[in-house]
Amino acid sequence: MQKFCALFLTILLFTACSKNTSIETDGNSNNGGNNGGNNSGNNGGNNGGNNGGNNGGNNGGGTNTATYYIKASIDGTTTTFDVMPAATLTSAFGLTSLGLTGATSSQAVIVLNIGALPGKTIGPGTYTETDISSFIISGTYSAVPGSLSASYAAGNSLSYDNSNPLKIVISAMDSKTVKGTFSGNFWGTTTTGQTNSTKKVISSGEFNLQIQ
Question: What is the model's pTM?
Answer without folding.
Answer: 0.68
